[in-house]
Amino acid sequence: MLDFKYFxxxxxxxxxxxxxxxxxxxxxxxxxxxxxxxxxxxxIRSGLMDKVTGLLDEARIKYVKLGGAVPNPRLQLVYEGxxxxxxxxxxFLLAVGGGSAIDSAKAIGYxxxxxxxVWDFYAGKRKAEKSIPLGVILTLAATGSExxxxxxxxxxxxxxxxxxxxxxxxxxxxxxxxxxxxxxxxYQTACGCTDIMMHTMERYFTKVETMExxxxxxxxxxxxxxxxxxxxxxxxxxxxARAEVMWAGSLSHNGLTGCGTDGGDWMSHKLxxxxxxxxxxxxxxxxxxIWGSWxxxxxxxCLHRFKxxxxxxxxxxxxxxxxxxxxxxxxxxxxxxxxxxxPTNLRELGITPTEEDLVLMAHKCALGVGGxxxxxxxxxxxxxxxxxxxxx
Amino acid sequence: MLDFKYFxxxxxxxxxxxxxxxxxxxxxxxxxxxxxxxxxxxxIRSGLMDKVTGLLDEARIKYVKLGGAVPNPRLQLVYEGxxxxxxxxxxFLLAVGGGSAIDSAKAIGYxxxxxxxVWDFYAGKRKAEKSIPLGVILTLAATGSExxxxxxxxxxxxxxxxxxxxxxxxxxxxxxxxxxxxxxxxYQTACGCTDIMMHTMERYFTKVETMExxxxxxxxxxxxxxxxxxxxxxxxxxxxARAEVMWAGSLSHNGLTGCGTDGGDWMSHKLxxxxxxxxxxxxxxxxxxIWGSWxxxxxxxCLHRFKxxxxxxxxxxxxxxxxxxxxxxxxxxxxxxxxxxxPTNLRELGITPTEEDLVLMAHKCALGVGGxxxxxxxxxxxxxxxxxxxxx
Lengths: 392, 392
What we know:
The structure is a homodimer. In chain A, 50% of the residues lie in helices and 14% in strands. By secondary structure, chain A is α/β, with parallel strands linked by helices. Chain A has 2 domains: 11-180, Rossmann fold (3-Layer(aba) Sandwich), CATH 3.40.50.1970; 184-390, Dehydroquinate synthase-like, alpha domain, CATH 1.20.1090. A 6-stranded parallel β-sheet of chain A has the order 1-8-5-4-2-3, with helices on both faces. The longest helix of chain A is centred in the middle third of the chain and has 23 residues, at 212-234. The interface between A and B is large, with 38 and 37 residues. Strand 1 (4-14) of chain A pairs antiparallel with strand 1 (4-14) of chain B, so a sheet runs across the interface.
């Protein structure tokens, strides 16, 4: 197994009404002037924003608000947030929402605390040296950004979607009340479950020797999300299922399920980033749409992991050759996606890229990963194009 | 399921030669004058201490050393450490060793940073308000103290063994190099594996409704330790098995395997604390010696969990009544203990307490938990005595 670093310092308050503690937590981490960053109107309509600002008022914590974070959050809003922080002398960021608001807030923190253009960090030109403290009230279980070191921002100039990872961006606290996720549309819930599973699956599919403890805990997490995604399809207000999925979302992307590996494959994410950059689809659905084609393209090069996945996660019968078992696992995963109304190709995703689009996406994807990437199988531009074509 | 808090901020560097980073990490967390706290001569004989002080010298970090932390670490040495910290104006604690050195260092930190008698915290009279930063180089996988909020100290005056838990005591960093555990005697390795499993088992055996994610990950951890404990019995230098056990030790006691429960039962630990206070046995062996008697005494009151444990951890056949399956699981666990040369009663532990001793231990145990305790089954003094008697 490989050496690893594990660092997940976020203080998690999990359960009903945990948002009541928001002012206390902001004070604990030294906040006195807060930028509350959020997305659309749902946190306002639900009354959550009023509750939060009421608690901050009561605790005499000052704040300014900036809404408008959208899925695949945009660089322009990040710039706007940085300017607002400067103007208002903000010393704490509070993201209220899902991954979009959190990722956008992380980028605002980097841009505000460091000089120069924040996009440099995402473009890989330099590293952030500091940030300001970030807290999260999570309303959507999906990206795991509430405990992760990563954020993804889309630059409108060329629709380039780029990720940046730094421990400086890890949230100081995350408030997770499963009830806050109950009003999500079914489609968003299913996309969230897909994204959560993919964060562990990306780490799981690797050719290097792994840790048994990491593998078995990863498999436990995947089975749990799979089971509860189906419960939520039929019973979206099920508190326990919401809770299982929400906590799995954090553990799936805080590093735990990758300890002792090389970090994992991540090509499904990279391939999806280009789809998301060009077509603005929901990330989870994009992942589901590309995964099957990726898996069928690479599984022979990482057969022992695909077999193990088939047996221990998809629980297919241990019958036939390794290849047959691996393929049965991929099929079972696609059946699962279909069962929660997720797409298994780009057509089902609702987009119809032209051959030129595919060529462009493959080119941008290859460029973005420095020519090639992948741990289950190392993919170059021609491989990426082949997978995109197969996913039509 | 119940609400929970999860907070495990320790930065973990895991793998070969990670101790090379010790000076860098101390600086990262602001240390300039360090108390290096350790146990016996093994860290000196192995050359680890020379390596550490060499790195600190090189980085121009000042330090003083205090050895002598023993299993069931003593209050007197804690007082000595506090005085030394005061005299030397220490601003960072580095524990080099296992749970004894770490627990002792945590206590030194509380006593040094707060006024008054440090024993007050352990006696439950008041709470620590601060501490100073603590780093760990772990040389023994067992107590999980490197990521946990807890420490246990024995007051020589009456041999009272008491625990104190506070997030203030959590280590800033933990350096875990599995190679540093390779020279441990087989008995210590087995005791460590037992202790590690017990930290999750204590959380697992509860009557409250639990989280599926927590349960399945806990079961994965338990199976992994069980498997690797047997590998280490036969092949003590097996790096991968050392690594699996070492990482499991941290995850088993950092809070992860208790998320969404009531915290668990913990009566095996409480019962063992009194044995350890009176007879100074190795903690893990004491736990193994008492567990079977505890389990047989309580299992009917928590039958669904004992059945689940039997099936998912001990992997016994799903045949017979729930009671039969639960009992088969307890027997299988005792067989496992025997297979790694752990005791399953006090006689095998090598002690022969008198009836008066048992009465005294039960009395002290009941007093220590405010009359009664237990989540699998609530135990009062007479129950404790019955379990002690059954464990003879």
